[in-house]
């Protein structure tokens, strides 16, 4: 679209990029649903940070005199059987979900990109090894894999000193599962890219393998990472809830998973508010992440189609 | 005038591809020598192994499926097939540079022209920042790009095909090469642009005393630019000589056919000759002389059908591989790469 337009002095001062990223950013900014979802996600993050900063001590705020109250001005969503505010619990629970979602993907996505790009570019034994790892992990159903890892981590510190029972351990277990999708996709894409003429031309001027990976492959696959990051957060949030429900999640701090797990017994006796609050909170976060991931794919994938 | 020294000698090069359908002997015993400062043309129909020869010289054959299974490639006497990859990388874009057929797809669309030239400057001349920028602009000017300072910051899609090929040439020159391999550099371009690019290559060659390996399927291009020509057919060189000899008195039936199929002024397109038959399937080359199914002389000849003719020097500096070419009986089996043929070349693995 800019190919034939005359160059203005402005362009000369600051040569503008081919603008693939700029184009994508522009498309996203104009995309109302994407922006709305981003707003929702940022709101959740804000709540998580704010709650962690101002609502400490909830865990021990027992007040048996006010146990199992209905919603009121004091307690918007009522209280639990210890007399603690369910609304506070809900706000505090955002922290666990978001920490797990972000940390998991901060491990999984770069890992998936790195292994996928290496396997796809170098091929040979390295590729065989990575594909073998991938296939082996993928052969075990995700939940079984997670449960096995959590059990393994719960038996004691890794190598005798790395405590895996906390958030780090949980995220690592989740990441071990979720790098696979990114890796597969990046590997396939890299195998296409390395056949491109400009990669051959780059090799012909003496660019090394790592140089080609950094300059020609990575810029063409990061968008896969971005999309998978958004979608991967959904997986991590859901998995954390399920694991907590099964008693393999995080304990000792309020989380949506625990709210749901604990309400198992309460729903029968008519206490449904914790369950409803937690599931609603999860629902909107997951919805926002899913839609954003989808919109990101729409905004970033034309890069592939035009390449 | 004494003959210039040999810059690069390719001896008995054999490059194969293991494909799902079988073994492709894309280059099957090719030998030639590139004299310093001259243009040497490699011609032949599409698929005869020209690009594979060029990529073998730079060791750019993808492995798998490809492999250089035998031969030597000597750059000023040193066998570069034996070099470790790290030293080979310094040669690529350094002493040996290459330009490709499709300038369209050989530049990364997301980087500016300047940056792509800068990459070579950084690798081979350790130039960065301002110095690299100035050197890149100088190179753009040198390859005839108007307003080079502006073009420096432009992206490939902002340039025409001819301009892109000039940028590729600038990239190739950035490492100050001794040898430039140009693989069909004008095939993808308009006729008028083709002439300009060829003229540019000629000028640069003269200024830098550059040795050029020009790959083309276009004999008209050969006539204008090359000092020597090797004609390839089905992975082998069938004729090699100084350009005037090949053009005025071609000895091999395939070369004769190629020359007859070149359009000339005053001849209608309908009168154009075409060599009968098709390029053979590289998975199963015909036995004997690989050209025999298409050759009017050898089609029914028992020898041609069963025994492949070796490349012989049938006149001073004129090699031909055809049982029926004049002087073949008395010809010598000398090596166009220089030296005596049949010396142990050794089979080596390909390291890339
Ligand atoms: N990567 C590859 N895999 C399999 N076969 C190949 C590959 N590259 C080239 N070839 C084969 O090598 C032969 C010569 O190709 P090439 O050198 O590109 O021909 P050209 O003379 O047109 O440049 C062709 O038959 C082609 O099929
Ligand atoms: S050797 Fe025989 S078949 Fe081959 S080119 Fe000569 S005459 Fe034709
Ligand atoms: Mg070719």
Query: Number of helix segments of chain A?
Result: 12
| Helical content class of chain B | 25-40%
How would you state the average pLDDT of chain B, rounded? 87
What ligands are attached or bound here? Answer: adenosine-5'-diphosphate, iron/sulfur cluster, magnesium ion
Number of strands of chain A: 0
Order of helices and strands of chain B: EEEHEEHEHHHHHEHEHEEHHHEE
Largest sheet of chain A: none
Largest interface: A-B, 26 and 36 residues
Q: Count the helices of chain B. How many?
A: 12
- Following the backbone from N to C, one meets helices and strands of chain A in this order, namely HHHHHHHHHHHH
Question: What's the alpha carbon Rg of chain A, rounded to whole Å?
Answer: 24 Å
Major sheet summary line of chain B: 8 strands, mixed
- Taking the alpha carbons of the first and last residues of chain B, their distance comes to 41 Å
- Average pLDDT over all residues of chain A: 83
Short description:
Chain A is mainly alpha-helical.
Keywords:
heterodimer, A: 307 residues, mainly alpha, 12 helices, 73% helix, elongated, disordered N terminus, B: 352 residues, alpha/beta, eight-stranded mixed β-sheet, 12 strands, 31% helix, 23% strand, globular, disordered C terminus, binds adenosine-5'-diphosphate, binds iron/sulfur cluster, binds magnesium ion
């Amino acid at each position: 679209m800019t190919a034939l337009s005359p160059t203005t002095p402005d362009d000369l001062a600051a040569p503008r990029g081919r603008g693939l990223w700029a184009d994508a950013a522009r498309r996203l900014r104009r995309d109302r649903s994407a922006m709305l979802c981003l707003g929702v996600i940022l709101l959740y993050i804000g709540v998580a940070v704010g709650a962690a900063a101002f609502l400490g001590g909830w865990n021990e705020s027992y007040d048996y005199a006010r146990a199992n109250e209905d919603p009121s001005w004091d307690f918007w969503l009522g209280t639990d059987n210890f007399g603690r505010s369910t609304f506070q619990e809900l706000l505090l629970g955002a922290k666990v979900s978001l920490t797990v979602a972000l940390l998991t993907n901060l491990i999984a996505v770069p890992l998936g990109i790195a292994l996928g790009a290496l396997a796809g570019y170098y091929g040979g034994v390295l590729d065989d090894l990575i594909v073998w790892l991938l296939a082996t992990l993928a052969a075990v159903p995700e939940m079984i894999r997670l449960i096995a890892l959590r059990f393994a981590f719960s038996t004691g510190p890794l190598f005798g000193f790395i405590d895996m029972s906390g958030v780090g351990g949980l995220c690592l277990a989740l990441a071990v599962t979720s790098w696979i999708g990114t890796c597969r996709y990046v590997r396939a894409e890299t195998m296409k890219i390395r056949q491109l003429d400009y990669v051959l031309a780059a090799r012909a001027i003496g660019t090394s393998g790592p140089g080609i990976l950094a300059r020609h492959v990575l810029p063409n696959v990061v968008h896969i990472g971005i999309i998978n990051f958004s979608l991967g957060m959904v997986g991590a949030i859901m998995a954390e809830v399920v694991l907590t429900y099964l008693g393999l999640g995080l304990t000792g701090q309020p989380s949506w998973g625990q709210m749901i797990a604990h309400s198992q017994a309460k729903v029968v006796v008519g206490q449904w508010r914790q369950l409803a609050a937690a599931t609603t909170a999860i629902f909107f976060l997951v919805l926002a992440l899913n839609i954003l991931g989808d919109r990101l794919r729409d905004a970033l994938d034309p890069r592939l189609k035009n390449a | 005038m004494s003959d210039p020294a040999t810059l690069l000698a390719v001896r008995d090069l054999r490059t194969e591809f293991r494909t799902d359908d079988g073994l492709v002997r894309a280059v099957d015993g090719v030998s030639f020598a590139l004299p310093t400062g001259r243009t040497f043309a490699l011609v032949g129909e599409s698929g005869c192994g020209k690009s594979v020869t060029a990529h073998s010289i730079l060791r750019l054959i993808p492995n798998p499926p490809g492999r250089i299974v035998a031969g030597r490639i000597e750059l000023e006497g040193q066998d570069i097939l034996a070099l470790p990859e790290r030293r080979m990388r310094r040669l690529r874009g350094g002493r040996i540079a290459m330009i490709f057929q499709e300038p369209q797809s050989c530049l990364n669309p997301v980087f500016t022209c300047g940056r792509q030239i800068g990459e070579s400057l950084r690798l081979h001349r350790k130039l960065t920042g301002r110095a690299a920028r100035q050197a890149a602009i100088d190179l753009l000017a040198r390859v005839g790009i108007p307003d080079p300072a502006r073009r420096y910051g432009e992206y490939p899609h902002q340039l025409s095909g001819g301009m892109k090929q000039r940028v590729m040439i600038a990239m190739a020159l950035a490492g100050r090469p001794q040898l430039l391999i140009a693989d069909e550099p004008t095939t993808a371009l308009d006729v008028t642009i083709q002439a300009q690019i060829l003229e540019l290559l000629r000028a640069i060659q003269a200024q830098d005393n550059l040795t050029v390996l020009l790959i083309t399927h276009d004999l008209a291009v050969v006539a204008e630019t090359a000092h020597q020509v090797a004609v390839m057919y089905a992975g082998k060189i069938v004729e090699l000589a100084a350009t005037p000899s090949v053009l005025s008195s071609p000895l091999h039936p395939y070369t004769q056919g190629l020359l007859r199929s070149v359009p000339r002024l005053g001849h209608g397109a309908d009168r154009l000759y075409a060599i009968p038959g098709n390029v053979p399937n590289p998975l199963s080359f015909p036995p004997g002389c690989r050209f025999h199914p298409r050759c009017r002389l050898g089609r029914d000849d028992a020898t041609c059908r069963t025994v492949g003719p070796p490349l012989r020097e049938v006149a001073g500096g004129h090699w031909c591989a055809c049982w029926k070419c004049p002087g073949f009986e008395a010809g010598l089996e000398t090596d166009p790469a220089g030296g005596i043929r049949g010396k142990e070349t050794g089979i080596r693995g390909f390291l890339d």
